[in-house]
Amino acid sequence: MSRTIIAIIPAAGVGSRMNADRPKQYLTVLGKTILEHTLRIMIDHPRISRIIVAVGKDDPYVSALSVLTHKKIQLVEGGETRAASVLNALEAISEENAWALVHDAARPCLTETDLNKLLEINDEHGAILAIPVTDTIKRSDELGDILTTEDRSQLWQAQTPQFFRADLLKHALDNGLKQHCVITDEASAMELAGFRPHLIEGRRDNIKVTRPEDLALAEFYLTRKI
Ligand code: CTP
Ligand code: MG
Questions:
Q1: Nearest ligand to residue 82 Cα
Q2: Site Transition state stabilizer: which residues (predicted)?
């Protein structure tokens, strides 16, 4: 049986590191919000059958976005943490053989080529986009001075999308949250459940808009994509 691919977009964060007047997913780049740029990638992809967006309770910005009336899109309420937001979205999946493609609202520069590389994966461990660490990595002591230099040869920076069987991911997140584990991405929940997700090398321009200086970079990369 062929699988159903459902995109989950956690968009319920407040963007505290961005220091803006609204959550970063609602900041405008090239005439569209970051969330709209991100959703466009998922709407246009023929293998993604629907898109579940987790938004904050009482979010006053989302209703202004006309794209959210698109027939592929469903809104659910987000949670206290990213993991809780993703779990709420997973609860809205009832399809047989569903796979969840979880992608941060704050990563609007994902390319179709990277997305397609990830969608080739079809085993129960799942996979994520990631990039090998290129900078020299230091571990600090509690004063902020260097304790040691880490061996970076097997270190990767996790990106999104992250792609897993929806039922396995739901179980893993549910258990992880119940055990009060720190879960900063879907792969970490799967790792705790005993899986070994594949690392698929992605592009460095798939940035997560996090701090004010990232906006100019996102604009530059999006200009090149258009
Ligand atoms: N997110 C979410 N629900 C939360 C927290 C985060 O859906 N409770 C989403 C964010 O909207 C974002 C993605 O998860 O698209 C990645 O999180 P991050 O970059 O940390 O965004 P924020 O939490 O909004 O930013 P910050 O940590 O700076 O406050
Ligand atoms: Mg956060």
A1: 1
A2: 17, 24
Q: How far is the CA of 118 from the centre of ligand 1 (A)?
A: 22
Measured from the Cβ of residue 97, the count of other Cβ atoms closer than 10 Å reads 11
Q: CATH code at 72? A: 3.90.550.10
- Write out the two tokens for 93: 């999946």
The finding on whether 81 has its CB within 6 A of some atom of ligand 1 is yes
Q: Which domain holds residue 196?
A: 4-224
Q: Number of structural domains, the chain?
A: 1
27, 194, 222, 28: which is closest to 125 by C-alpha?
A: 194
How remote is the CA of residue 80 from the centroid of ligand 1, in Å? 10
Find the helix packing angle between 82-91 and 166-178, rounded to 10°: 140
Along the 226 residues of the chain, how does pLDDT read in single tens digits? Answer: 689 999 999 999 999 999 999 999 999 999 999 999 999 999 999 999 999 999 999 999 999 999 999 999 999 999 999 999 999 999 999 999 999 999 999 999 999 999 999 999 999 999 999 999 999 999 999 999 999 999 999 999 999 999 999 999 999 999 999 999 999 999 999 999 999 999 999 999 999 999 999 999 999 999 987 5
Is this structure's pTM higher than 0.85? yes
Cα 14 from Cα 5, distance rounded (Å) = 27
